[in-house]
Amino acid sequence: MGQRHQIGKRKVSDSPFLSLDGLCLRYPGAPDDAVSDMSINMAAGEIVTFLGPSGCGKTSALRMIAGLERPTAGAVRLEGDDITRWPPERRQMGLVFQNYALFPHMTVAENVAFGLQMRRASKSEIATAIAESLELVQLSGLDDRRPDQLSGGQQQRVALARAIAIRPRVLLLDEPLSNLDAGLRESTREALRALLRELRVTTVFVTHDQSEALAFSNRIVLMRGGRIVETGPPAVLYRTPRTRFAAEFLGAANLLRARSEGDGKHATVESNGASYRLEVGSWSEGVRGGEAGAPMLLVGRPCDLRLQAEPGVNRIGGEVADDVFLGDCHRVSVRVEGLAEPLRVDIRERPASGRCFVELPATVLHAVPETDRSHER
Q1: Which of 189, 184, 227 is nearest to 205 (CA)?
Q2: Which pTM does this prediction carry?
Q3: Cα 191 to chain centroid, rounded
Q4: Start-end ranges of CATH 3.40.50.300 in the chain?
Q5: DSSP one-letter string for 149-215
Q6: pLDDT digits (tens, 9 = 90+) for 61-84
Q7: Cα 212 vs. chain centroid, distance in angstroms?
Q8: Phi, psi at 330, each rounded to 5°
Q9: CA 169 → CA 28, 43, 211, 335, distances in Å?
Q10: Minimal CA–CA distance to 120: which of 166, 67, 68, 169?
Q11: How far apart are the first and last CA of the chain?
Q12: Does domain 244-368 match CATH 2.40.50.140?
């Protein structure tokens, strides 16, 4: 297969490849840091997503890695070299911007060749890289088109081809799918995910979309207020978050105020005189081993709960209050006596109205601290 996979020779390993060590960034005149004390090690070939709401510091962190912003404090290291003060062109990193930043007066081939020309590559090297990069992003044959003759998804792939043509040591993606409509975003996301797996290049992906983060990442770095809140594999953060913020940000979640029974297995939900005893399958560090009566929140994802016709263990009775069709499922809201918010349950078929029981299986019920300090600087 020739040189097509040169970019992916490195395999995921446990040794640090790209390291952020205590990174801080404060913009001139700003009262607070945009990024505060950010430290993380990334392995070769790892896909790491910086996830968080607007203004959380994720793009600022990406720009410091790229060399487009100089940290106020801390260091960026690549394969052991301190590159904090290196200019962007010396870092050999491919960057795809949110708006793609294609040159409108250039053809597809000329856009892809730009970075290589700046590095004074030979004509034969450039021609080979153009052909290979366009083949990887499935745009072979469109070399002579200009950006305004391409769809949004094709423009995104040209920007990606330009980034990978230079054989980057690190690939940086700044919300590359945010400008696409919903249908195109999903298909492009699947294609991009497959390509990143094939390239096996260390990648930092920035997004505010939790579904993108869950789909792409080997690891998610969840940020808020310029700080890292949690980091871990997507399934771990989704199923067993350590904070309320993570539980809510990573997808739809039912949150039930409860108190520990002190046995490490059960909690009691009490509200307006109603009481429900539930077995809890997992406990975050902040509530594990808590005394009887200690407050907490129980997290149950709508996709994990079930509707039942009869009472039973870990089941709460209520009335079907609403049904929203989401395409692949119905999201049913069940009003429960004593609970301020209805329980949401995802099911395949439209539910019958009236009385039902929501089953919260212990294996998917997770406890987190009631008080969330993840926003504090």
Answers
A1: 189
A2: 0.88
A3: 17
A4: 6-239
A5: GS-HHHHHHHHHHHHHHT--SEEEEESTTTTS-HHHHHHHHHHHHHHHHHH--EEEEEES-HHHHHH
A6: 999 999 999 999 999 999 999 999
A7: 6
A8: -105, 130
A9: 31, 12, 26, 53
A10: 166
A11: 50
A12: yes
User: What is the spatial distance between Cα 200 and Cα 212, in angstroms, rounded to a whole number?
Assistant: 18
pLDDT of 6 over the 50 cut? no
| Chain position carrying tokens 């869950």 | 214
3-state secondary structure of 277: strand
Q: How many whole angstroms separate alpha carbon 247 and alpha carbon 296?
A: 13
Domain 6-239: which topology? Rossmann fold (3.40.50)
DSSP summary character for residue 32: S
**Phi-psi category of 226—alpha, beta or left, where left has phi over 0 and alpha has psi -120 to 50?**
left
Q: Where in the chain is the domain with CATH 2.40.50.140?
A: 244-368
Q: How far, in Å, CA of 29 to CA of 317, rounded?
A: 55
d(CA 40, CA 62) in angstroms, rounded, equals 13
Which amino acid belongs to residue 176?
Answer: P
> Environment class of residue 263 by beta-carbon count within 10 Å: exposed (0-12), middle (13-18) or buried (19+)?
exposed
Percent of the chain with pLDDT over 90: 64
Asked whether the beta carbons of 368 and 285 are under 8 A apart, the reply is: no
Instruction: In whole angstroms, give the CA distance from residue 338 to residue 325.
Output: 26
Q: Residue 186: CA atoms inside 13 Å, Cβ hemisphere, count? A: 2
